[in-house]
Amino acid sequence: MDYHTTFASAHDLLSAAPREPVKSADVIWGSPVTKTHELFTEDGPLEVGIWQLQGGACRDIEVEELFVVLSGRALLTVNGRPPREVAPGDLVKLEAGDVTTWVVQTTLRKLYLTPGAQ
To answer: Tens digits of per-residue pLDDT, 1-52?
Structure first.
């Protein structure tokens, strides 16, 4: 296995990532778009990547995930509980099946970890 060190900003990694519009059935308002850059995906115990959401509000049904907000702000509602603002440095754990609503205040970027292939 070839090991090497890479230095890059989240902005640089996401700039080349394709824009993925949120499915219309999940859009609450605006024209939300996501971008994802996967960092580790090779059948290991974890998948790690950087994800971005901008341009509106949307719903999602989550997978098990731990994330830390790198930049931006959003209001996050989980399973109908009161919304919480997530901002840089915040650490959030979501469970598989959680129903979320994301209302982007400024373009949100997060570093995420999810269980990979076992």
So the answer is: 455 567 788 888 888 899 999 999 999 999 999 999 998 876 778 899 999 9
- 10-115: CATH topology is Jelly Rolls (2.60.120)
Q: In angstroms, what is the C-alpha Rg of the chain?
A: 14
What is the three-state SS of the chain? Answer: CCCCCCCCCHHHHHHCCCCEECCHHHEEEEEEEEEEEEEECCCCCEEEEEEEEEEEEEEEECCCEEEEEEEEEEEEEECCCCCEEECCCCEEEECCCCEEEEEEEEEEEEEEEEECCC
Report the predicted TM-score, pTM, of the whole model to 2 decimal places.
Answer: 0.89
Q: Are 110 and 13 in contact (CB under 8 A)?
A: no
At a CB cut-off of 8 Å and minimum separation 6, what does 76 contact?
Answer: 83, 84, 85, 86, 92, 100, 101, 102, 103
Report domain extents, the chain.
10-115
36: which 2 tokens? Answer: 């994802």
